[in-house]
Amino acid sequence: MKTKKLYLLALVFFSLIVQLVKAEVKLPAIVSSNMVLQRNSTVELWGWADANESFSIKTSWLTEAINIKANDSGNWSVQVKTTTSKVSQTIEIKTQTTTIILENILFGEVWLCSGQSNMFQPLKGYNGQPTFGGSEAIMLSENANLRLFTAHKKASESPLEDLKDFSGWTQASPETVSEFSAVAYFFGKQLQEILDVPVGLIHSSWGGSKIEAWISAEVLEELQEDGVPITPVSKNPQRSPTLLFNAMINPLIPYKIKGVLWYQGEANRQDPNSYKILFPRMVKDWRERWGGEEFPIYYAQIAPYIYSGDNEYKNKEDNTAYIREAQMECLDLIPNSGIAITLDIGEEKFIHPPKKKDVADRLLFNALNKTYGYKAIDYASPTYKSHIVRDGAIILEFNNINGGLYSKEGLSDFEIAGKDKVFYPAEAQIIEGNKVLVKSHEVVEPAAVRYGWKNWVRGTLFDTSLLPVSSFRTDKW
């Protein structure tokens, strides 16, 4: 009899525990204490609870509590307006049995930073591959108004509701920034100082990842039906279609962001034509899933590097000039986008160039001018416009000539060809301050010019803001 009573008591106790657990409100990893919410906008808070569970949300900046009821599946969401206040805020979520308090929340600018290993490269650098200025940046990183969040490397065959592995929102400090993305950190630190508002950086990248891995299954199916070649499933998850979108992007939606920084392309270098379709379609899909807002995306062009096929660089599959060209052409295919040209800061034998602050600066120039209204800041590199043939030479004209063209030690890596399509090394010089004259005694009747048209090159042509000209060609041979 005594045993039966103990059993019944245990059963009642267990039932109470289950009810308490069921009634608990659960938040996604990205919604927590120390987070930065996009300022002066409408943000979404969401999560899970027991089916049809009722609870309230009280914020420190709104006068009235918000009453919530989960749906039949236990999902809930609510839109909340934020302000421009720089004061630390709190959120209290209260059910009949539990209370969740989120503290030290800031309103500011939130940027998602994604891509492959050059975005992933931390301030402390990789083994044998430094990040220039990384040690000083780590030393001076203490900043309560700069917050960091990292989605760690995970893959999934189906879209996840929440992150499986992450480093939650933390304040920037020497202990938290050394392993954080260098490009993201350099961008965010300067943005925070210039705007004098809090900044939140969400880092989600994976080295060696193909762009297909970051695209939803629905979009890839549509593209495949349209005849676009899609990377097949690989033993490496970061090279398999949609697996990273499922595990590292979908769980972040619909957390309100100001924009996206993107640094990827090396893994797709052998199919530039497909990249021109895949990248714009990925951006369109992300924007739609984030609520249809055309947030800005600023991306880095891949930097020069020798690659194994450099001795045969005239073979299209081995020449990264074609993927650099594709990335340039994506500017016209992706509304509200900008590019950071990196032709001058690559490393011949390292695919991870150490000058990550230069990349971040050029991304920041785009953001400051195009997103934040600092119109005096030059952000756009000169681009090839047109050419004329005169006296056995070709004269090139350019767009975006801000203050004229510049070369520190003379121009190199220009080639010129006649109608036979055979290219020869050429002499090049800046004329009239804004044009380039190209010629070679090997080509009497020139027809086309190429600049930096190979894997490894050190850019020599700039504007007076020291923004480099990308590799380009006047032909479509």
From TrEMBL:
Occurrences of domain Sialate O-acetylesterase (ranges): 109-330
InterPro entries: SASA, SGNH_hydro_sf, SIAE
Domain of life: Bacteria
Xref: Pfam families: SASA
GO BP: carbohydrate metabolic process
Keyword annotations: Hydrolase
GO MF, one annotated term: sialate O-acetylesterase activity
Record protein name field: Sialate O-acetylesterase
The species this protein was found in: Seonamhaeicola sediminis
Lineage: Bacteria, Pseudomonadati, Bacteroidota, Flavobacteriia, Flavobacteriales
